[in-house]
Write a structure and sequence with these properties.
Radius of gyration: 21 Å
Oligomer: single chain
Bound molecules: pyridoxal-5'-phosphate
Number of helices: 13
Strand content: 5-15%
Shape: globular
Length: 431
């Protein structure tokens, strides 16, 4: 099946993998059509099995920041692999990655490495509950923290496209009521009044799973004050923003220091990694020091830590300045195109991310985010794809411009967007 097309592969995949994919958004369910099957990737591009090269703004949903197949990361992984792929004993790379994270992230003395963002948030919550001796968890509507049971209530990302899932109600079949009974879901960008039953408040400090929604002025500061008042822990879920919004994540950017932080994506250089960290006094409650159990056969994996270390080494001050300029160039270019074509689309940037909202005004919370015109987004998405640009196949995702997206590549994206926006609007008129 060497010359097989995307359609052939999708059919073949659907026979052995539910929906043909290993993560729902990849199935193109909300935009329609057939996903492209990636054969290889290089810098800002992915090439599919039909030999079609696309400018990639998905970048593994943020796990890739320096571009695909960056030589420094590839070399680090190859070198590590020659020394063995997993041991079940500690390694020096784990220590160095933890040191790099602790040095960069405000309020982090100690770090525990895991293998995904989901594990990081799940473990941080268990730790917060163990530390405070309380059960209640507060999360915000439209924030996505991975797919562990207690966090699947009014979650963003592709969970937003499933029915149900209101406050304290499971957002997925298979999650028992009991698992979310102690989860309170509140509107983003509103500082709540807490009480002393709350173990933790978990928040995306720049929300990037209901489109892009930056924190309103005073929101994160207010959360920190309110958490301190009632003795709850504030958890910043920086799985997307960590080492992207700034080296020290959104915490460094906003000047608000959480009690615990969760990380993933960038710190693994594209290999499976997550982490959570915080003050030594809290982290000391984890096994083997304390009573909160948490473990992982592949945690601190040699290949993943090698890739992560290599990625973090590329991220100096100049890199962050470049990321900021690139995100701004993309958002400004798209905004200009949307204005010029009269397309009811809005492009925004925050935390070196770019949001594309199908509506007249960028959302400030999940209620506003859900007014997105998903059909318009789908038409724009396909028009972009036809023009050779891969956006995320879902209206609640964001774009991830990275270090490999040169000005010329961004300008090419904007040029494609000009006709794509016009086409997306025209198609609506025809209907
Ligand atoms: N937290 C946030 C903010 C995320 O965006 C994600 C995934 O996109 C997760 C947690 C879960 O990470 P993973 O998909 O690695 O389990």
């Amino acid at each position: 099946m060497n010359d097989a097309s995307n359609v052939d592969w999708f059919e073949r995949a659907a026979r052995v993998i539910p929906g043909g994919v290993n993560s729902p958004v990849r199935a193109f369910g909300s935009v329609g059509g057939t996903p492209y099957f990636v054969a290889s990737a290089d810098g800002p591009y992915v090439t599919d099995v039909e030999g079609r090269r696309l400018v990639d703004l998905v970048q593994s949903y943020g796990a890739i920041i320096a571009g695909h197949a960056h030589p420094a990361i590839v070399d680090a992984v190859v070198e590590a692999a020659h020394g063995g792929t997993s041991y079940g004993a500690p390694t020096t790379r784990e220590v160095r990655l933890a040191e790099s994270i602790a040095a960069a992230m405000p309020g982090v003395d100690q770090v525990r490495l895991v293998s995904s963002g989901t594990e990081a948030t799940m473990s941080a919550i268990r730790l917060a509950r163990g530390y405070t001796g309380r059960d209640r968890l507060v999360k915000f509507a439209g924030n996505y923290h991975g797919h562990s049971d207690s966090l699947l209530a009014e979650a963003g990302s592709s969970v937003a496209q499933l029915a149900g899932g209101g406050g304290g109600v499971p957002g997925s079949a298979g999650v028992p009521m009991g698992a979310v009974e102690a989860t309170t879901v509140l509107p983003y960008n509103c500082v709540p009044s807490l009480n002393d039953t709350v173990a933790a408040v978990i928040v995306e400090p720049v929300a990037a799973n209901m489109g892009l929604v930056p924190p309103a002025e005073g929101f994160l500061e207010g959360l920190a004050v309110e958490c301190a008042r009632v003795g709850a822990l504030l958890i910043f879920d920086e799985v997307i923003t960590g080492f992207r919004a700034a080296r020290g994540g959104a915490a460094a950017l906003t000047g608000v220091t959480p009690d615990l932080v969760t990380l993933g994506k960038v710190i693994g250089g594209g290999l499976p990694v997550g982490a959570f960290g915080g003050r030594a006094e809290i982290m000391a409650r984890l096994a083997p020091l304390g009573p909160v159990y948490q473990a992982g056969t592949l945690s601190g994996n040699p290949l993943a830590t090698a890739a992560g270390l290599a990625a973090l080494e590329l991220l100096d001050e100049a890199a962050y300045a470049q990321l900021g300029r690139t995100a701004r160039r993309l958002a400004d270019g798209l905004s200009e195109v949307f204005d010029a074509t009269g397309a009811p689309l809005v492009a925004t940037t925050a935390g070196n991310l770019v949001g594309i909202f199908a509506g007249r005004r960028a959302p400030r919370d999940f209620t506003e985010a859900k007014t997105t015109d998903e059909a318009l987004y789908a038409r724009f998405f396909h028009a972009m794809l036809d023009g050779g640009v891969a956006l995320a196949p879902g209206a609640y995702e964001v774009a991830f411009p990275g270090l490999a997206h040169t000005d010329a590549v961004i300008d090419e994206v904007v040029t494609v967007a000009r006709s794509a926006a016009a086409r997306a609007v025209e198609q609506r008129v025809v209907r």
